[in-house]
Amino acid sequence: MTDSKRRRGLVAASALLGGVLVLSACSDDGGSGTSAADSSKTSQAQVDEAAAKAASEAKITIAPKNGAINASINNAAMVTVAKGKLTEVTMTTSEGKAVEGTLAGDGSQWKPNGQLERSTTYKISATATDSEGRQAHANSSFTTVSPENSFIGNFTPEDGSTVGVGMPVSINFNKAITNQKAVQDGITVTSSSGQEVVGHWFNNQRLDLRPEDYWQSGSTVTLKLALDGVEGADGVVGVQQKTVTFKVGRNQVSTVDTKAHTMTVTRDGKTIKTIPISAGSPDNPTYNGQMVISEKYKETHMDGATVGFTDDDGKSEYDITDVPHAMRLSSSGTFIHGNYWGKGIFGSVNTSHGCVGLADAQGADDPDTAGAWFYNNSMIGDVVVVKNSPDKTIAPDNGLNGWNMSWSEWTAGSAG
Predict the structure, then answer these.
(1) What does the pLDDT profile of the chain (416 residues) look like in tens digits?
(2) Do 353 and 394 sit in the same domain of this protein?
(3) Is position 23 within any domain?
(4) Which of 123, 131, 196, 217 sits between 20 and 30 A of 265, alpha carbons compared?
(5) Is residue 315 domain-resident?
């Protein structure tokens, strides 16, 4: 190798060695041995650790779930928290109307104070803190069940009322019920007398409940409707959650003998009065059977056309605007009422279109008349029994008159 070539090789080696030294110098970090990438990872871990320390341990749960539809109007809405305490909960409709609620004393849950509205969207916002005072937040929105997708039952008698011994519990649903067992299972009727109570479906919208014999006088009857969320038909759920109680008064049963033209009133097994009456004419006889007083009117308007009594010209056969002391015995229009226009008929002849008439005074203000006396001494749920009429026995579903069915017939109509 020539001297010139040897010198060029030494120069190249020196350059290479210098490059290595330069590269080594660029990677040096003052002896720490940590790269820029490692430093970045360390910084992120520190951020995550700080965030974890700042995050609240309180876990808020809002029911129903966000976006839920067909939610219950009774029990669905609730806010709860774990590992913390609720400090603030607000609930509003989508229009901004506030819903009042109650926060538990220990801060563990919040509920609205009353029943919600159907077909309404509600928004809930909640804040809670954990043991370190760190806050957690949650929000939710849901929509309650619509009237189209729910059913209710209109019931009688009223809560807190006192009724006669013949008063059944009668529930009329606003939708056809196809799942009758589920609905009946959600309804219980009990009596302080211990009498067994059984329900009977007259059709897919009416359920009546009664004991085998009349209620025992002085007893208390409790109706519980636990129908919230119960599917009564495909896509149709109940919304009622209610308890109703009523008292049973003295045992009064009045027996109308259409042949003898009399009514005998018994109370707690003793006859207290015998009243002359006029029942339905031979052409329009009064139904036979046990009938329950379902409505009372000190004075009412009776128009024959409303129950099919019209002449050949279509005019009503009777139209009396001030019938005194009227009490309904059937849905089809049978009443027991005062009569001021009939003269000499009471106790001797039957002249009405099917009602039972008692002598009375016009204006319903004379308490000494038979009509006024019976009205003042009767209550919703009292029984009026009609016998010896040439007509048939009244249909059990024509009014509150299921007592005209045998117990075996009654229980056969139960879905429970």
Answers:
(1) 444 444 444 334 333 334 333 333 333 444 444 555 555 555 666 555 555 567 999 999 999 999 999 999 998 999 999 999 999 999 999 999 999 999 999 999 999 999 999 999 999 999 999 999 999 999 999 999 999 999 999 999 999 999 999 999 999 999 999 999 999 999 999 999 999 999 999 999 999 999 999 999 999 999 999 999 999 999 999 999 999 999 999 999 999 999 999 999 999 999 999 999 999 999 999 999 999 999 999 999 888 677 777 777 777 777 788 999 999 999 999 999 999 999 899 999 999 999 999 999 998 778 889 999 999 999 999 999 999 999 999 999 999 999 999 999 999 999 98
(2) yes
(3) no
(4) 196
(5) yes
Whole domain around residue 311: which residue ranges?
252-400
CATH number of the domain within which 211 lies: 2.60.40.3710
Q: For residue 243, what are the β-bridge partners? A: 224
Among candidate residues 110, 145, 180, the one where a domain is terminated? 145
Residues 6+ apart with CB under 8 A from 80: 60, 61, 63, 108, 109, 110
The Cα 122–Cα 100 span in angstroms is 12
Asked if 128 contacts 81 with a C-beta cutoff of 8 angstroms, the reply is yes
Contact assessment for residue 358 and residue 346, using Cβ atoms and an 8 Å cutoff: yes
